[in-house]
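Posting this for the archive.
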Amino acid sequence: MPKIKYRLSLMPEEREELETIVRKGKHRSQKVLNALILLNCDEQAPTPRTLKEQDIAEVLNVSAMKLYRVKQRFVDEGLEVALNGHKGQRVYAKKADGKRCRCPRGFRSVSSGVLRASKAPPQQGQIAGPGTRPPTRMIIASL
């Protein structure tokens, strides 16, 4: 466990918001769990806190590091980040050149499964007949 101890004291408005999240409504499970962690670690709670951090972690079935990280995010970055976490910062490189498909102009790409599902008659360029495997992708003229 890290040496730094984060001490929480929630404002009454924050406490009401967390209790609302826990009691009613549809929320992500991690948001509810983070709200329970913050409520149980509050040192200014109306009822005195009797559980130690390790006991809170056991009751909520989380690690002691999760308690530490949630409390750290609350102290450093605020309630919203502590509940929802950070938005992903990673920027992904594009795998293609930005075009949707490399079909000739006036054509579009359609998977053969769509054609089979629609039971459409074979079109120009489509292989049909017994014992032949249809291509996984084909090019048909746009309508």
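The chain has six helices and two strands. Residues 12-84 form one domain.
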